[in-house]
Structure formats: structure tokens, C-alpha cells
Amino acid sequence: MKKYTFHVSGTHCTSCKILIEDILKEQDFIKSVRVDLKKEIVEIETDSDKSSEELAQILTSKTKVNGYTLSIEKTIEEKKNDDVIWKAIPLGLVFVVLFFLLQKSGILNLSFGSTITPMTSFIIGIVASLSSCLAVVGGLILSLSAKIAEDDSGKNKKPLVLFHTGRLFGFAVLGGILGLLGKEIGISFIFSTILGLFASVVMFLLGINLLGILKKNIFTLPSNIFSFFRKVEHTTLAPIIVGIGTFFLPCGFTQAIQITALSSGSFMSGLLIMFSFALGTLPVLALLSFSSVSFAHSKYAPLFFKVAGVVVIVLALFNFINSLVVIGLIPPIFNF
Amino acid sequence: MKNIAISILIALVLIVVAFMIAKGRVSTTPSNVNNISVIDGKQIIDLTAKGGYSPGKSIAKAGIPTILRFTTNGTFDCSSSIRIPSMNVSKNLALAGITDIDLGSPKVGILRGSCGMGMYPFEIDFQN
Question: Other C-beta atoms within 10 Å of B40: how many?
Fold first, then answer.
């Protein structure tokens, strides 16, 4: 029985420890495995006669699919990561500037008249999904998708499917309820602003986490937020609830459509209007979340996570500042 | 090191561009369009809400009963919801038509408002 210690790279989450240990335990020649995420080392006990170089190679071939590399020497991964972040910052900012330019261009200020059919509602949904609302809902989706893709390493798309299903379902049912109520109740302004603030804080934390600039384990998400993500990733209900919750996020288009649903007069018409609106937002939002998963499994994964991190942090700050403006703590700063 | 320098440079340029985009349309001088009218002793300030507010800055008289009147025409973007924090106003406009907000008799000073998400501002300078 011999003991070996390898350096491991590619660990970015607490569940990585369990995953690596599970994979390595499946190998016959390995008697025990212990992963130390803080030191980024893997200790194994084995009865194999192979040299440590060979062992590192064999084990890496098993863990490579999940993105982990074992090596005898601490790899120069960190230096490489540094390079990635210097590419990611300008690239992320390019995306943000393009997004702002799109808003500024005015091409999204279409006219729809005042009678809203499910069809116009669908088109308004498409426009909304490209509008400044994307900074809130899209930013949240990008950060959650990237985080889920990063954590699960597996090709787990279930939470994302559940999220979008929950969103469509929630919009339909809540739209129906608005149509049924039919009075000018409106969604509480304070409620949606607070939810917006909360979303921007979540986005900011996830963004920092995706960037990975702060040393792992020194900065981790606050434990209850962290367990919230665990739930989003691994339970059925949580992603659905987050999807439904997007109904209440601050977005001018959503609010305008909600008012249309209110004045529509019946459950069915309210339902149809809100559902077609959500359906209109689906292509862009789905593209955002599922392409995150694809990127996360490509060779561009490290760059993708960091670019996503930069974009999410900038959008989070943008939303945060706007929330403060709306509350009245600071005068308006942006003008689109 | 070279990468870092290039990166910081590009990042700075982009941030400056972003700020120019964000600040570009702020009309620091009030528009020439006369959007203030007085009807039956009430001052009416007309603003158009669509993809922002126009004019972005108005000058009005302080101390007289004032109504802020928004005209919408198929407005679905953020500008369809009005927020004036200092007067605790948060109101959704009619999708098309006219919506009035009663401002009472405003004091001298600048009244700032924005759309419900904060990125389309407008201001009204109440003067003596």
C-alpha cells in the first residue's frame, strides 16, 4: 500500500470534492481517496505498482471529462487563469456596451397601438427580451445558468428546463388571475423594487463567484444563499419558483402587459396575453441559458465563465444603481 | 504584463464609451418646445412618454397648481411607469392616451422623476 498526493486543478465548488472522490473510488486499485479543496490536493492510497506519473495520467483520464486534472507538480493553471481574466474583462465589457447601444439605438421603441391581442403580446415579448429588461431577467438567468453549469459539470439541463417551464406557467396563471381581478390593483411597486434589489445582489455575488478572482474558499457565498443555489440546482420546486418569481421582477414591458391583462376582463384572456408575452421572451432567454451550458462544456469554458462574470457584475451594478434611483436615494444617473 | 496593460486600456475605453452612451441624450438645456401651458389657472406640463421622456428637462413656474400630463402612444417600455420618489408617486400610464398626475403647488426646486426601472429620467425645474 502506497500513499500519493497529487495536485488537482479545475475544482471550483464544494460538490467537486464529492464528485472527484466518487470517480476515483470506482477505480479498483484505489483504496482510499481524500480531497482537500483548500490546498487543491488529492491524497490516495493504492496497491498499484505504477509510478506516480503514470497514476496521475490514469486518474486524470477518468476525471478529465468533468474538468479536473491531477498532476504531480502544481500546474501553472493559475497563471493561465490570470491571462483569461484579462481577456474576459474587455470582452465582457464589449457585450455590455453592445447591449447599451441596442437600447440607445431606439430600434426597440416600436409602436403597437393600444389594443393588445395575444399575437401583439407575443411580439412585445420578443422586444422585451432584448430591451433593458434583459439586464434584470437575462442577467439573472445568465448568472444562474452559468453557475449551475459550472457546479454540475455534468450536462444537467433539468433546472433550466424547469425554470423556463415555471416562468411560462407562472405568467399564464398569474395573468389569468389578473384578468379575473380586473381592477387597478397592480403589482406592488415596493415589492418589485425590493425583488429587483435582491436579484441584483444575487447576480453580483454569482458574478464574483464566476470570475473566481477572489481565492476559492476565502470568499464563498453566504451560507443561506449557497444552500438556496443547491436547491435551485437539485430540487424540482426551487427552479420553478424562481421562474414564477420573474413575473414580479421590475421590467417596464412586463408591467405594461400586466396592466393589459388586468383590463382584459376575464381569466382566459388575461392568461392568453401573459402566456404569449412569456412565450415571446422565451427564445432569447432560452438561448441565453442553454448556450451557457454548451459553452460550459466547450474548450472556451474558462473564458466563458469569466466573461459571464464580468457581464453579470456590470448588469448587477446597473440594476442596483437604478433601484436606488427608483427608491429615491440618488438622482437618476443613466439615460437611455 | 503586456496583456494586462492592453486589457486595462481596452476596458477603460469601453467604460468611457458606455458612459458616453448613457449620458449622450441628457438635454442639459431645456428644449425650445414650449410644453408648459396654463389653463383655468392650472399649469399643465406636457411630456411625451415613449422610449424615454421628452422633453427631458422642463422649466415651470413654482407655487401654482400644477398637473404633469403624460401622453402615450402604444408605449410598452419602461417609460410607461412613472416614478417620482420625492412625491411618492408610482403610477402606470395608460398604454395610449393621456395620464395626469397632480403635483399640487410645487415649491421652488428641481423635481426629478424616472421610469419604474430608473433608466429614463426626466426633470422639471420649478422657478419663481
Answer: 6
Q: How far is B41 from chain A (nearest CA, A)?
A: 30
Q: Which residues contact B80 (CB under 8 A, 6 or more apart)?
A: A252, A255, A256, B49, B72, B92, B93, B95, B115
A183: exposed, middle or buried (Cβ count in 10 Å: 0-12, 13-18, 19+):
exposed
Rounded distance between C-alpha atoms, residue A25 and residue A32, angstroms = 7
Residues of chain A found within 8 Å of residue B119, distances taken between Cβ atoms: 103, 132, 322, 332, 334-336
For A35, list phi and psi in degrees, rounded to 5. Answer: -105, 130
Contacts of B3 in chain A (CB under 8 A): 83, 86-87
Task: Say whether A214 sits in a helix, a strand or coil.
Answer: coil
Residues in chain B: 128
Q: Which residues contact B71 (CB under 8 A, 6 or more apart)?
A: B46, B47, B48, B49, B97, B98
Query: Nearest-CA residue of chain A relative to B12?
Result: A90
User: How far A190 CA lies from chain B's nearest CA (Å)?
Assistant: 9
CB B75 within 8 A of CB B95: yes
Distance (Å, rounded) from C-alpha A120 to C-alpha A117?
5
**Contact check, Cβ <8 Å, A326/B15:** no
Which residues of A fall within a CB distance of 8 Å from B96? 113-114
pTM over 0.95? The answer is no
Low-confidence ranges of chain A (pLDDT < 70): 12-14, 74-82, 112-114, 152-155, 183-187, 213-231, 233, 336
B116: its cell numbers: 419604474
Q: What is the pLDDT of residues A276-324, one digit of tens each?
A: 999 999 999 999 888 888 888 788 888 888 888 899 899 899 989 988 9
The terminus-to-terminus CA distance of chain B in angstroms comes to 59
DSSP A52-119: HHHHHHHHHHHHGGGT-EEESSPPTHHHHHHHHHHHHHHHHHHHHHHHHHHHHH-TT-----S---HH
Contact yes or no for B118 and A334 at CB 8 A = yes
DSSP-derived secondary structure letter, B106 = P
Which of B8, B48, B73, B117 should one mutate to test binding to chain A, selecting the residue with the greatest count of A CBs within 10 A?
B117
ipTM: 0.81
Which tens digit of pLDDT belongs to each residue from B49-71? Answer: 988 898 888 999 999 999 999 99
Nearest chain B Cα to A82, which residue? B4
CB contact under 8 A, B118 and A328: no
